[in-house]
């Protein structure tokens, strides 16, 4: 068993797609109609056949509440690993990304947390 797709709730699929591809650098793998929404998945440019990130609409009241509560409590919705957290932090700052936590050492890892502009906090981590 392995993880093939994981999802993140987003307020606006087009806005999320733009941020996750143009700002973060993920690649679009699928973009298919799915009722009134779309099935949009992204992959890392470093692992094009790896785990896909699904940009899931938060139109379900339970999903929206879950997303909002995580955000208010400062809990990241997911985590991405980076090779050099300070380099990535500075690159994202130049793109206007708003961080809630600057790079911080926590034991064997260094982490930072930013707002993805789609209703989520995202944690980046360097092992």
TrEMBL record:
Query: What's the protein here called?
Result: Glyoxalase
> Where is the organism placed in the taxonomic lineage, from the top?
Bacteria, Bacillati, Bacillota, Bacilli, Bacillales
Ranges for domain VOC = 2-127
Q: Which domain of life is it from?
A: Bacteria
- Which organism encodes this protein? Terribacillus saccharophilus
Q: Where is the signal peptide?
A: none
């Amino acid at each position: 068993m392995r993880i093939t797709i994981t999802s993140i709730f987003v307020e606006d699929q087009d806005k999320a797609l733009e941020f996750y591809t143009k700002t973060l650098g993920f690649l679009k793998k699928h973009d298919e109609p799915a009722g009134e929404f779309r099935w949009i998945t992204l992959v890392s440019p470093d692992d094009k056949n790896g785990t896909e990130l699904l940009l899931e609409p938060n139109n379900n009241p339970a999903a929206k509440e879950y997303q909002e509560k995580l955000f208010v409590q400062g809990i990241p919705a997911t985590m991405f690993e980076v090779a050099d957290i300070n380099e990535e932090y500075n690159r994202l700052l130049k793109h206007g990304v708003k961080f809630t936590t600057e790079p911080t050492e926590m034991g064997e890892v260094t982490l930072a947390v930013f707002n993805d502009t789609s209703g989520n906090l995202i944690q980046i981590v360097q092992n």
